[in-house]
Amino acid sequence: MATYKGNTHSEPAKMEQIITEFFAKSLHIILESRCAYVSSRNYSGEQFLSSPSPSSSSSSSSSFRPRDKWFNLALRDCPAALENIDFWRQSNLEPMIVDVVLNQRPSNWDPLNNRGIVRNLSGKERYYYGSDSDEFGCETKSEKVVERWFLQYESKKSCGGNGGKRSNCTSSHSLYKKSILLLRSLYVTVRLLPAYKLFRDLISSAQICSYNLGHRVSSFVEPFTRREEADMQRFVFTPVETSCGRLCLSVLYRSSVSDVSSEPSTPMSPQFIQEYVGSPMAEPLKRFSSGPVSQSSPSSSPFGRRHSWSYDLYRASPPSANPSPSPTYSDSHAAISKQLSNRLPPAGLPRHLHDETHDIHMKNPSYDEYWPSPAFSPSPSPSPPTHVPGSQLSKVLLRSESAPLNIPTSRLSSIPSLPNNQMMPPSPPMKATRLIVSKRDAHMGLYHTSSTVDKLFSFSRDEPGKMSNVKPSSNNSSKSYSRNSSRLSFQDDYDDGPFVVDDDDMIDPGSRPSSFDQTRHPSGPFDPDGVFPVKKSQDAAVGALVRMLKKAPPLRQDISVNSHLLNQFSEEPLKELSVATSELISSKTTADALEELRGYKEMKDLLLKQGGNISSE
Amino acid sequence: MNSEVCQLKELEVEHFEIREVLRCILHTILFHRALGLVRPKDVDLELFEITYVQCGDVELDRKIDDKIDQFIDRVEKHPNKKNQICLSFYEVKNKQATWFTNKVERLYWEQWYINLNVAQHPKGHFGKSHHSKVVVDRGDTAADERSARRAALEASLRDVLFQIIRFVNEKKDHVPPIPNLEGVSFPYEITISSSSDSAFGMDMFKRMLQTGHPTMLS
């Protein structure tokens, strides 16, 4: 017989203790799976650890604590539950009513309109995107109770002070066993109710959600109006009879919360395939935002990079992203503006916007469904360009502390293996595993490829025009170079097809070197273009080259790390994932770095030769 | 002792969905019968928007997977039969050895029947769907059909999970007292059978002879 702790003596006292603990455990189970800042899915472990928890024990999570032994169910810490239960214990087995409250942004903020907001990028909305803190601070909230849990111990009147002793009713052992069973099914049920989806979306994409989940614990509440209750369903757990009464647990829940969920209630597989297809293919420009983390990235167009570096060096103050740059942020801020200034030359306003939409698009792939293909073409924006970097601030920070790279390097996108993964948005393991599903369901691709192709076409169709906007101040040659190479990369993507890319990613990391080689080939014809501007300003080029070499990271990398990290990739939670990717970036390119170095050497020779020619003339 | 039987609602699944569906159901049942100290583990299904709970026991996980492998194997060998998985919980009673019986007796106190109807498809051709005319079908309609079917299955699976929860809630008295469990769960076994399989009846009969039918024991 399982033991339960406690220094109880009489049967009623034991019962009472079981009942009290039952309340505590139930509350814990409910809040653990509804309370966003404590995630039972361990996504926000750090947040949790740093949050004050009044009575959390110091033991490690792997060992069982005394509290876990109650009902043989070990739960994760949930400060909210602990606080509330401490409060409740002071009352005398009063009913406990737990409301799970959905705090929603004003009605114009439903997911459909989100799209519009993203596109319009009005300053305020953007602020909310970028802000990690209180997203709902100054807006009027709409509150809705999505679940109401009733916990109650109904005691019988006949059960007086001496009653119940050795009655033919339930013994404390039986009560304990039944409580365990009830709590097991409660644990499963909270995960099957619709509100769990809200919670899951919330913890998996905290920055984007247009809602938050709160809770209220009290002994009595204002009952719902009849109209309110009409929207709700009730699930009643079978009460546990005791000698003195019965333990009741039930829930009223809103059966459809999908209208507030950020994810559309469309079937899963299409969504995920689209997400996956969308992110690597529709987002080639994204790649060099973190590609440069390894400065020895396999770029076969060093002059494109030279250009970006020189841009970086000569541009005095790039457009500032932050409206009020604070000293503490100077480092990251500088990095970002550097990056932005390189990726997004000031004159290329449409491109800013374009990137921005991609960012958000990627961040919350579920919006995919709502994006018609024209969304991929740069929609003219009424917003001033200086706002755009600001919105990227937090995201860029999250993603990498990257150095700048120039647009031509978007050819990276034609490398089918790593960059795709690197650029996946930080997504929970759930989503990562679902990618594999998307592969399994590859037949679904038929359905989606068409739309993807549309997007691609609209994208690449617009590309030349956009690219010609980029940097009108620069000379013709660099312009044409950018255009050619980026268009090229899009076509490469298209030719590869999303699922080929997928397979490479997931199955065969070893094939990467060869795919580097393959993708390098198409670049050949454009290299002359890349070399051409050198003649214009050789000094600058040499200076940049020297600086580049100085800043290059040491070539000490362990290739074997690669496969290991890749294996982790699909399983590790969010945080490790991002670490892993950045490590990947820096570790995968030893060979490429060597090759690049060789390229630099050739370049140097060329420059020297040309210099010699000039001086001899 | 009472023996309770729960017949779970039949599910129409495709071959590639068998594993997830079975895992989800078996783990959910076992979580309700693993009354030892567990640290639950949430698992999101890949094919459906459903989260189920495992009791986080490696041995149990492995055993379930083995049985699912067996089941899939059987489905492939006998494609035209309705297939059933039975999860039974029993208590072990030590009996004095006699001439006729084993020393150890299993007293079955609960049986869950999971009924799957596996849709027949040419194996490995995901592009093809229910009918042979699909080749002519537009990709769109095939996909629509597929997602509608998927959504229906998800709803049914959810129903089955709630069926489990209700059963667990309503029937508590027959669950034996919690022993000082070595493992997390009560002793259990998983058996696979096909409805049109005559050997199945034989098997049951043999088992009844060996152990006595559960209901006869009470």
Automatic annotation (TrEMBL), chain A:
Biased amino acid composition, Acidic residues: 492-507
Start-end of Pro residues biased regions: 375-387
Gene Ontology annotations of biological process type? autophagy
What are the boundaries of the region Disordered? 371-391, 407-428, 461-532
Coiled-coil region(s) at which residues?
A: none
Biased-composition ranges, Low complexity, are 468-489
* InterPro entries documented for this protein: ATG13 (IPR040182), Atg13_N (IPR018731), HORMA_dom_sf (IPR036570)
Database matches in Pfam families: ATG13
Gene3D superfamilies according to UniProt: HORMA domain
Q: Where is the Autophagy-related protein 13 N-terminal domain?
A: 19-257
- What keywords are assigned to this protein? Autophagy
The name on file for this protein is: Autophagy-related protein 13 N-terminal domain-containing protein
Task: Provide the species name.
Answer: Penstemon smallii
Kindly list the organism's lineage.
Eukaryota, Viridiplantae, Streptophyta, Embryophyta, Tracheophyta
TrEMBL record, chain B:
Keywords from UniProt, A to Z, are: Autophagy
- Which GO biological process annotations does it have? autophagy
* Short name of any one Pfam family annotated for the protein: ATG101
Q: Which domain of life is it from?
A: Eukaryota
Which family, according to the similarity comment?
Belongs to the ATG101 family.
Protein name, please? Autophagy-related protein 101
Give the originating organism.
Answer: Penstemon smallii
